[in-house]
Amino acid sequence: MSDQELFSVLDTESTGFKFHEGHRLIEIGIVEMKGSIPTGRTFHVYVDPQRDVPEDAYAIHKLSRDDCIQLGGGKLFSDIALDMLEFIGTSTIVAHNASHDVNFLDAELKNAGLKTLTKLGNPVIDTLTLARAKYGPGRYSLDNLNARLLGDAKIKREAHGALLDATILAEIFKVMRISQTGMTFDTRARLAGPTLSPERLSIPAGSLKVATLREDDQERHQKLCERIKKSSGGSCLASGLEFR
Fold it and tell me: Which residues carry out catalysis?
């Protein structure tokens, strides 16, 4: 992942868990990131689901259909779909339990007569899968990662909200991405400065026994060797060096 790569960190709220059971999206929140840094651009809409919001869903996000109509100006998903696709562009989509969000968005896009995100080919990163790969088996809800990775900087929330959750996820992804970069090991040699030729590196063993040092440097060297001998039981390879 490049430091210049664009990410669309998104979250959605809906009337239920499965679109094929008649549930619809009611809120979409997207935070744009370039590399590990939020750009400041966000996309946030409420849409009329054209159906009621069940009590169990309302308990999670505290949004009724009337709330969505009022907050979104009565717009349907089809009214905001093109603006959403333009915002996302060709960026990589980041979501927690991404299949849920992407499947809902794909279903809504298909219902609106538009190409789905899957057909458009946007890469997708699932932070739930990423967390399991990085930290091992466990429960990795957004709240869990918020507390675990952000610590004192964790973002407080009383109810789920698409833009709020996308903002939290962007901070979590930033931490996960920085730590991932920091833990990446490349087995290929990386040399700083000029590259030495093999001839300069082919030095016969035991040939470097003579060094040029000032007297005070020699005294410090001998004292250090004595300390090493004392702590190592009488052995110090450096004491075999000759000075001139």
Answer: 160
